[in-house]
Structure to design on (759 residues):
């Protein structure tokens, strides 16, 4: 019948109009910035550097291997390696980045730096309200701005952080087991072979 | 002859003069519309409501638009190169004076024949309707037939043009 | 007390007139009425712009403007300031006089249309014998202003938009008048006050509004369709919508002149809703006889605002019609339906009281509607689109 479609359309819109006052299903608007939708866990925006413990300089996991700098497609990471070493989480002395700059006006959030990092040091953040009036310097994040704690990482990506912790703990356990085994082996070797006088030689 | 009559008369005459003296043809058509409006105001001043509103509805609402469309579609809106006065203006003046004389004589004859009335007769729409449907029904139907013929003719001409364009 | 509330504006007008000397009183009365209309309807226009934006927003799952005042009520003030302070650009080759006069003519003619609407008992500005004809005469002059706007801009898109708008308005003028002629025939008068008086009777508490009769319902529907097209509202807003896409007749207008066009369009919407209310919905008469204590002007304005709500609802629902679809619809569907409606109204009058006239008139109308609808759908004019080459 002519006009049937119009009546169906009109009934649909009036249902929408009336329903928008009572049900949140109909009125799907979120009034940003007063109301915000909680981001889902897999949200990713720009990278940040993870540090363990309280001191961001001492606990930073990054060892300035520069793999992320080489793998980054738009080349937005700039790393300057330090000249001295500091002990890392397992106690082994490692280099650390004296400068670690990411230009977030260039970064395309591809997550390749996260995928290639062998030390689980760089992860994706969920922060997007980064507008600034200075469009050159303000969008170049340095080491201090990028460093965020492990607790923060657990807050924004709980499942991922738990997996990373399990991985690191497993790695640490393996290293510990290896060191203990090596220590036991060396102790055993020392016990088995009596100390022989070193043969004097010319 | 009240002040309203003189004002409306001035408006109508000004509209008519502008319609022939202006250079831009669309401006002339709009000035003609002002003259039509003046005529409608005359009708209303004489308390002939139906005639006045029908004048607005038909002349301003339809005829003026038709005139403007015709000007646009025939590219008459370009200003004439020779100016607005034609070369045979004397002959035109003589003819216009002759027509004015005939009309004026006819009006004055009828005015002197009619008795002096102080109040205008009130003609209601009902009386007009009755007259149209009873006494003047034959002219009404003939005019309707004429208009229908014009409408069909216009449609046929447009259809031929459409087929000609294909 | 009820009488006082009902006639409160008339009493106010008489009291204010009484403050002046006797010679000035008639003129003062008219001026007071004019001032009331000129103040009230633009205020209603301001309110309607907010309601339209919020209404459309709710239909589209969002909230409308809500920052300016509580619930965005003061948004028109912000819009008004914006349109007043924008630069008034007139193209160099545009016809300055006509360009200036077009919005003025439109607004003046639309305001004149309000003079004959009976907004309550004894609340007409000018009670004319041929009031309906006056209203349509003013509406016809609006088309001329649209054309003037389009031509004076010296812009070919403007001109095209204006020609299309004028063609649309002229085509739908005929069904508009034909639907009203049916009412005039039954009521027996062109005067709007008499038409409302003819509808102000009640049988078993239900009113004698013309919309509750078969010919009245069909007439109201065709009147509504023609009114939507006359005021260039969705789904017939091709002249306006073109200005969103390419251009339209008010493309070369900025700032206050554009605001005047906008005002003119909304006021035309108000006046034609007012006319529809008067002709078909009983004007200022109450829906049920026991509600007669509510003031008459309240009923008139609520019915008018209800019509405006329906206009907004249709805008939020229907997509735009293309120019040729619009014209086909007018000449091949709406106009024959109005002619059938006229004959039904004649039949209604001459069959006299009784159930026969209800049955016959409704049956003939339904057959005509269904028949023309089916014929149109089979030939592909209405209904889902048929493609010549794609299938």
């Amino acid at each position: 019948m002519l006009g049937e479609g119009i009546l169906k359309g009109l009934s649909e819109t009036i249902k929408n109009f009336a329903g928008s006052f009572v049900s949140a299903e109909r009125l799907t608007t979120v009034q940003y910035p007063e109301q915000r939708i909680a981001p889902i866990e897999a949200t990713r925006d720009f990278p940040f550097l993870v540090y363990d413990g309280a001191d961001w300089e001492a606990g930073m996991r990054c060892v300035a291997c520069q793999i992320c700098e080489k793998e980054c497609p738009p080349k937005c990471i700039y790393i300057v390696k330090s000249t001295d070493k500091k002990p890392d989480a397992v106690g082994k002395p490692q280099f650390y980045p004296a400068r670690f700059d990411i230009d977030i006006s260039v970064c395309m959030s591809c997550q390749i730096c996260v995928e290639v990092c062998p030390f689980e040091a760089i992860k994706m953040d969920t922060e997007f309200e980064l507008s600034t009036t200075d469009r050159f310097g303000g969008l170049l994040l340095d080491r201090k701005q990028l460093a965020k704690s492990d607790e923060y990482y657990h807050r924004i990506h709980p499942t991922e952080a738990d997996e990373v912790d399990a991985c690191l703990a497993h790695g640490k356990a393996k290293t510990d087991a290896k060191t203990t085994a090596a220590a036991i082996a060396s102790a055993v070797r020392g016990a088995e072979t009596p100390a022989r006088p070193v043969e004097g030689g010319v | 002859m009240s002040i309203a009559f003189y004002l409306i008369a001035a408006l109508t005459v000004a509209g008519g003069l502008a319609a022939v003296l202006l250079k831009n043809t669309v401006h002339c058509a709009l000035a003609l519309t002002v003259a039509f409006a003046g005529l409608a105001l005359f009708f209303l001043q004489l308390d002939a409501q139906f005639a006045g509103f029908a004048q607005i509805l038909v002349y301003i609402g339809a005829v003026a638009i038709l005139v403007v469309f015709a000007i646009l579609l025939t590219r008459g809106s370009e200003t004439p190169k020779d100016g607005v006065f034609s070369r045979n203006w004397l002959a035109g003046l003589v003819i216009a004076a002759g027509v004015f004389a005939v009309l004026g004589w006819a009006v004055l004859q009828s005015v002197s024949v009619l008795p002096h009335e102080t109040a205008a007769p009130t003609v209601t729409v009902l009386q007009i309707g009755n007259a149209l449907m009873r006494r003047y029904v034959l002219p009404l139907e003939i005019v309707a037939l004429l208009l229908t013929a014009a409408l069909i003719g216009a449609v046929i001409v447009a259809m031929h043009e459409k087929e000609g364009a294909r | 007390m009820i009488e006082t509330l009902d006639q409160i504006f008339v009493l106010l007008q008489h009291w204010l007139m009484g403050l002046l000397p006797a010679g000035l009183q008639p003129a003062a009365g008219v001026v007071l009425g004019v001032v009331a209309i000129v103040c009230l309807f633009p205020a209603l226009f301001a309110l309607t712009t907010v309601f339209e934006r919020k209404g459309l927003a709710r239909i589209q799952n969002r909230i409308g403007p809500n920052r300016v005042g509580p619930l965005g009520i003061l948004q028109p003030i912000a819009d008004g300031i914006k349109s007043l302070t924008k630069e008034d650009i007139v193209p160099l080759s545009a016809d300055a006089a006509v360009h200036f006069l077009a919005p003025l003519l439109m607004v003046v003619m639309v305001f004149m249309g309000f003079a004959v609407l009976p907004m309550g008992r004894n609340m007409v500005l000018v009670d004319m014998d041929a009031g309906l004809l006056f209203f349509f005469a003013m509406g016809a002059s609006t088309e001329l202003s649209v054309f003037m706007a389009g031509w004076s801009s010296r812009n070919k898109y403007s001109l095209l938009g204006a020609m299309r708008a004028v063609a649309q308005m002229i085509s739908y003028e005929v069904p508009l008048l034909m639907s009203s002629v049916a009412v005039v025939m039954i009521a027996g008068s062109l005067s709007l006050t008499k038409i409302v008086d003819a509808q102000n009777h009640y049988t078993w508490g239900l009113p004698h509004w013309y919309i509750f009769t078969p010919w009245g319902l069909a007439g109201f529907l065709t009147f509504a369709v023609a009114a939507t097209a006359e005021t260039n509202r969705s789904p017939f807003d091709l002249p306006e919508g073109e200005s969103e896409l390419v251009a339209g007749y008010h493309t070369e207008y900025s700032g206050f002149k554009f605001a005047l066009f906008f005002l003119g369009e909304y006021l035309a919407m108000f006046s034609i809703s007012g006319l529809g209310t008067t002709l078909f919905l009983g004007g200022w008469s109450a829906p049920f006889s026991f509600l007669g204590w509510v003031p008459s002007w309240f009923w008139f304005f609520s019915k008018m605002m209800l019509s405006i709500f329906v206009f907004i609802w249709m805008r939020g629902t229907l997509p735009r019609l293309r120019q040729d679809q619009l014209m086909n619809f007018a000449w091949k569907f709406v106009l024959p339906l109005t002619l059938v409606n006229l004959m039904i109204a004649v039949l209604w009058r001459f069959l006299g009281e009784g159930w026969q006239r209800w049955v016959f008139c409704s049956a003939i109308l339904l057959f005509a509607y269904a028949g023309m609808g089916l014929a149109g759908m089979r030939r592909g004019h209405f209904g889902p689109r048929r493609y010549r080459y794609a299938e």
Observations:
- The two ends of chain B are 60 Å apart (CA to CA).
- Residues 3-123 of chain B form a domain with the Four Helix Bundle (Hemerythrin (Met), subunit A) fold (CATH 1.20.120.1200).
